[in-house]
Amino acid sequence: MISRTNYTTQQSPHFEILSENQKERIFNGMMRTLQYTGAHVHHEGARELFKKAGCKIDGITVYFPPELIQQALASAPVVTEIFPWDGDDSKKITIEKKRSYFGPGPTPPNFIDTDTLERRKYLRKDASLVARVCDALPNMGYVQSLGSISDVTNGLADVYEFADMVRNTTTPIMSWSFDRNGCRDIHHMGIAMAGSEEAFRHKPNYVFYGEPISPLVSDFHAIDKCMYCAEHRIPQVYSPCAIGGGTVPASHAGQLVVALSESMVGVIASQLINPGTCVIIGGVQSILDMRCSIYSYGAPELSLLSAALTEMVHYCNLPMYSTAGCTDTKKMDMQSAMEASLSINAAMMSGANFVHDCGYTESGLTGDIFQTVMDDELIGMARIIEQGVEVNEDTLAVDVIHNTGPGGHYLYEDHTMEHFRNHWMPTLMDRNSYEAWEEQGRKTMKDRVIEKTRDLIENHEGPINKVPAKANEEIEKILEQAEERIAQTA
Amino acid sequence: MLTLKELLITYNHKYNSIMSTYLSNISETLISGKGDELKKLIESAVNDGANPGEILNQGLLPGMDAVGQKWKDGDMFMPEVLRSAKAMSNSMDYLRPMLKEGDMGNAGTMVIGTVAGDLHDIGKDLAAMMFEGAGYKVINLGIDQPGESFVNAVKEHQPNILGMSALLTTTMPRMGEVINSLKEAGIRDQVTVIIGGAPVTEEYAGEIGADLYAPNAGSAVEITNEFLQQAQ
Ligand code: B12
């Protein structure tokens, strides 16, 4: 046998959109933008921080020297882990290159009611439902709420959402907040679930999500929350929703330059405050539909831009927060399946770390857990392609081929027993014979998605009864205090 | 030898044909969104004695109508429409001082802004530009505007339209609060209030006592103009 050096048993077939030279040019575009155009930072404390680090400041505009950017990139961590609060490491997230975790998205105002299938406002009960359903879905690697709660005290949707979700799933959550207060409340709940501040620092159990504003603006709360997370070493996302042709250039390369630049402000701030703290960038990258003037969540450009930005973000040695599994349709239909299939496969092939918005419909205005359940199946399929073909002596099976010979079959082979379970098993796709399909009630994909979702809602209890009493108490106390805080400011 | 009458007729013919060429060129240049060209064209039309009211009513407005129609039909896209709208609004700035009472076209004045706590501005800016394009003078207050800034702007600019934008369910209530402040200030009746933004609905507009709701920037102008016409 020939011995092989650097022998790769399994090579994932990730695709690449950009050449080395293109990446360099986009990267340089970002450097030039941050150095000469600068970014608005509506936060005195942050500007002070940047000034001390050598940035030129003019009013609210901050200009970032290239060495500072390089320095920040050098200090960002290569690997970060997020731990399920119940200690079951099968749901642990390892943030490193080319490892993809899919999940729903945050905060649409509406939700598809799981009983009536009609659009309505997102309610508090939906947050636990989404958490519970995702808890049971094998391909949802992390969880977001798919809505912003409309039936709690104005200004506390963020805090209630986390309080309810974290107790209904052990899958790590990606949370968001209006401001530093909510950010702190959520942090304290994370600590309550971890057992202590020390335990949380050691094993963070959620990721925080915040957004700069395209083009090139960090508003007060966005950068303030970013700073809070950095101070407390909470892994965080700092990424925009860039609208091609609207808030960023209509040319894709230009969009990538702006999107990278505005995110870099958060990267630099976080690394200055706490070198080595985890910061993830990326965001929603799509185009303004110039006919309907909507931000398209089903456009093929979303997939192209997200994949290209993934390459850029990895080029910067940072983790990527990407987008897929979403649609512009209003109701579950062929379009939602088509758009989600394409974007999920592209995101998978790009090797993005977090891929959000599985379950976004109506261009981000309505969360739909049925879509999430369908996406879960699509992710499973895409994952098979991403795993590629394993080539070694065993998988080449030349001996087995020889023993079976021409004209035989492989059904009795031990080799088959060992390998057939690697084939993907559908949970929603129909592969029945016509007769079996008929016997089972001639169900369409839509019927099966609804059935599976409702079954999970009814029968998957989630970890709610495993939550330590002390954590429960603390969370309730945090909610009470949050109510008091709002009452005082009102 | 031509009689004086005959001479006048020929002259009138010539004048009319020059003018109608001007007007149709103005329409077309506006539709193609060439702002600089349009400006020159209008200036020379005025120098050649064209009536500003006619330029507006028979050149610019039919042009904008065509733009609106083309957009609806999917023959024109947002950036193209905005170029035409911008060209229209610049032309209006130039013509406005020359217009007479009855020349209409001075569709009115609009104050528009995104409410407090809300930083989304693309949709609001699109709406603002569409109103400009329809001949309105638009005062764009910007994002994150507290209630008093809307009230003060209404007092100061005396607009006939007040537009408010909110993209967040948490900031939507600010729009109702502004309407209440207008009532308290005794100036609610002076303006037609139109609201918009992705999570906003017609129903919500009704709840908070806004006059109008538009699902998108394109329809906003139409809805407003229809409403104003009916009110008259
Ligand atoms: C881009 C975007 C942002 C950008 C805004 C950049 C900018 N310069 O505006 C950034 C990144 C800053 C941002 C921030 C946030 N956003 Co945002 N954002 C969006 C997004 C993706 C697109 C909005 C957009 O520009 N659409 C394109 C324009 C053309 O459409 P439009 O605004 O709807 O406007 C049209 C009509 O509504 C109408 N219209 C609009 N205004 C007006 C006014 C009048 C008078 C009229 C007549 C018509 C009219 O005409 C327009 C053209 O046809 C939406 C999702 C969505 N699909 O809407 C979320 C969305 C609105 N954001 C949301 C959220 C939650 C946030 C944040 C809280 C996120 C966070 N955790 O930090 C922050 C809040 C910041 C703040 N305080 O405002 C949620 C709102 C959920 C809710 N419950 O209300 C949405 C729905 C996304 C989601 N699914 O979660 N966001």
Report a brief summary of the structure.
The complex is a heterodimer of chains A (490) and B (232). Chain A is an alpha/beta fold and 490 residues long. Helices cover 46% and strands 12% of the residues of chain A.
What does this structure look like?
- The complex is a heterodimer of chains A (490) and B (232).
- Chain A is an alpha/beta fold and 490 residues long.
- In chain A, 46% of the residues lie in helices and 12% in strands.
- In chain A, the strands form 5 sheets. Chain A has a 7-stranded parallel sheet with strand order 6-17-16-14-12-10-9.
- In chain A, a hairpin with a 6-residue loop joins strand 7 (110-112) and strand 8.
- The longest helix of chain A is centred in the middle third of the chain and has 22 residues, at 252-273.
- Chain A is globular and about 80 Å long.
- The termini of chain A are far apart.
- The model of chain A has no long low-confidence stretch (mean pLDDT 95).
- Chain B is α/β, with parallel strands linked by helices and 232 residues long.
- Chain B folds into 2 domains: 4-102, Methionine synthase domain (Methyltransferase, Methionine Synthase (B12-binding Domains), Chain A, domain 1), CATH 1.10.1240; 106-231, Cobalamin-binding domain (Rossmann fold, 3-Layer(aba) Sandwich), CATH 3.40.50.280.
- Chain B has 9 helices and 5 strands.
- In chain B, helix 1 (4-31) runs antiparallel to helix 2 and helix 4 crosses helix 5.
- Chain A binds chain B through residues 109-110, 121, 148, 150, 154-155, 157, 178, 213, 219, 243, 245-247, 250, 288, 290-293, 365, and chain B through 74, 77-79, 119, 122-123, 126, 169-170, 173, 198-199, 216-218.
- The structure holds cobalamin (B12).
- Cobalamin sits between chains B (112, 117-124, 126-127, 163-165, 167-169, 194-199, 214, 216-217, 220) and A (106-109, 148, 176, 210-211, 213-214, 240-241, 243, 247, 293, 295, 363-365).
